[in-house]
Each structure stands twice: as C-alpha cells, then as structure tokens.
Design brief:
Elements (H helix, E strand, L loop, with lengths): L2 H31 L4 H5 L2 H4 L2 H10 L6 H13 L13 H36 L4 H15 L2 H15 L23 H7 L3 H38 L2 H8 L4 H29 L3 H6 L5 H10 L3 H29 L7
C-alpha cells in the first residue's frame, strides 16, 4: 500500500467522523420538527390523561429539555459509543442494530451477488450481440427490472412461487419449525454452515431466493445497461481495433482488454446498489417478513422513536461512506492511471 493511498484513506476516515456528527444533527432537527408528539405515539389514552405519567415519560426520555440540550447530550453519549435507548423496544439502540442489521446484510449480499452475476453477464452478451434479437430481449429485461416496483414484484413472486406453485418457501428467514443456528455472525446461512447443519443452511438459502431476486432485479437492470453502454464505448476505441488487427479473437479482446477498461462505471453502480440494499428495503422486508433494518426503521418512525431513527440514519450514512471508499480504492486496482496523491 503506497503512502498516497494511506493518506487518502486516512482523510476519508476523518471525514467519516464529521459526517456522523452532521447526519446526527440533520436527522435530530428534522425528526424533532415533525408535527407529532412521541407521548401520543407511545402512551395509551389512559396514560395520556394522567399528567404524572406524561411528565414521567418526558423526563425519562429527556423530552422535557430544550432541543439543543437534548442534542448535545446525545452527541456526548454518541462519542462514547452510546446511541441511546429505543423508546419502543426499551433496549439500547446499538443492541437493536446488532440484532436487525445482520438480516439486512445477508439479504443484501445475496441480492448483490445475483445482480452482479446476471447484470454483467447480460450486459456483455447484449454488447456482443448489439442490435440483435438477444440484445432487444436483454434490454427489455433490464428495463422491466428497473421499472417494476419492488413491492409489486415481491407480491407477484409470493403469489406465483409460494401460493400457487408451492416451489418456494414462505416469508421469514427460516421455516417456522426450525430453530435459528447458534449466533456467531448472525448470518443464518454462514452460522448454519459453521454448525455443520446443512439442512438448515439450505433452508435459509431457499428463504433468501425470492426476496433476493426481487431486490436484485433493480440493481441487475442498472448493471446490465451500464455494462452494455460502457463496453460498447470501449470496443470503439483505437486500441481495440489494434487488437483486432493483430488477430486476437473477439472473446480474448473482450476479456483481456475491453472488460477491464469498462468496469469503472459498473463498479460505481454496484457500490451504489449495495448501499441502497444495506439501507433496508422497507416494503420488501415487510412483504417477506424479513426482520431487517428496514422494518426496524419503519416501526421506529411510526412510534417517533428518535434514538432509533437517528441510529439507523447514522448506520446507513456510514455504510455509504465505507462503500464509496471501497469503490474509490477499487478504481486504482482496475485502472493503474488512478493516483491517490
């Protein structure tokens, strides 16, 4: 690792610390500016009529203090690694994120693998078979993947493959008659494999299939279109014509010369897509009863659970910054001309 790369990485990590503070400020102000009362959202009607209960609730969660005082207290705790306690679950927000985020990570990884594999495959075939019938079909598939709402696609997949055909498992991470594996990574497939329980690993993998296809379809469409356009652009450059003049086969030209030069915009799309998936897809997670960060954020917003809302927002922002850093570092691997000085 060069000195320039180390300095670049260090600068980005310092920026990450400022970003966390900035995101917490923005989300704190917005969430506290919503014309709703967390007291009404979390207490029963009987308790709301009891002024002592209302005052006790506000004092417990610091809602009786001015907003700026609440924020400085929150930041002081955040610096110590404390994201506060969830009003809804009564647990530390950090513990809740550790509980729900692995489910989203597992689904996001599975979805992005599907999206990258089929997206790049379709994109390369589409570029090679430009303006052919295969090209038109693939372009149509990519448009459908980008255009169709994920919640509708999820409902159709469940109706067709689970309800009507019965060839896919129902919602959830595993079948209801199975017990979760011993938690090591909290990724069910990996934990089941580590425990040597192959039947549980297969079951968990089967439950990933439908939501993974639904979530991966959008990113797959983007990757297909980006791969096709980028590859066609590279294939028109002079060095490709020189390679053809030397007698290299089309397959060798694409794999050895064209594809590597066409990957930078594709890697960018993959990074953005993976960041979106890690943010939690609320509707898809709800349809498939997937206990991920999307459902947690939705329930937190419904209860005006300020600590949980801010915690999720910070987590998502960190995801994007880290993924963008990894993408930027990959640029230097894919293109030797990239410098980090």
């Amino acid at each position: 690792m060069t000195l320039g790369l180390l300095k670049y990485t260090a600068r980005r990590l310092v920026f990450l610390a400022f970003l966390v503070i900035g995101v917490s400020l923005v989300v704190f102000v917005i969430s506290h500016s919503v014309p709703s009362d967390p007291v009404l959202a979390n207490l029963s009607q009987r308790n709301i009529d009891n002024q002592e209960m209302v005052d006790s609730f506000k004092a417990k969660w610091g809602l009786d203090k001015p907003m700026y005082t609440q924020y400085f207290i929150y930041v002081g705790n955040l610096v110590k690694g404390d994201m506060g306690t969830s009003i809804r679950t009564q647990r530390p927000v950090m513990d809740d994120l550790k509980k729900y985020f692995p489910a989203t990570i597992e689904l996001a990884i599975f979805s992005i693998i599907i999206a990258v594999f089929f997206g790049m495959l379709f994109g390369i075939i589409s570029a090679i078979k430009r303006n052919s019938a295969i090209d038109q079909i693939i372009r149509g598939i990519s448009v459908v993947g980008v255009s169709v709402p994920s919640f509708w696609l999820g409902l159709m997949f469940l109706l067709l493959f689970y309800v009507n055909l019965g060839i896919a498992p129902g919602p959830g991470r595993i079948s209801p008659y199975l017990a979760p594996p011993v938690a090591v990574t909290n990724l069910y497939v990996i934990d089941a494999l580590l425990a040597g329980d192959w039947s549980l690993a297969v079951d968990a993998l089967q439950h990933l299939l439908l939501p993974g296809l639904v979530l991966g379809s959008f990113t797959m469409g983007l990757i297909t279109r980006t791969t096709r356009s980028s590859l066609l652009e590279v294939m028109s450059l002079d060095f490709i014509r020189t390679a053809r003049a030397k007698g290299l086969t089309e397959k060798m030209i694409i794999m050895r010369h064209a594809l590597g030069n066409a990957l930078i915009p594709v890697v960018t799309v993959i990074g953005i897509g993976f960041g979106n998936l890690l943010g939690g897809m609320v509707l898809v997670e709800t349809i498939f009863a997937w206990p991920g960060i999307g459902q947690y954020a939705y329930k937190a917003a419904g209860n005006l659970d300020f600590p949980a809302i801010i915690g999720v927002s910070i987590l998502i922002s960190i995801n994007y910054v880290v993924i963008n850093l990894i993408v930027d570092l990959l640029y230097g691997i894919l293109d030797p001309r990239v410098r980090y000085n």
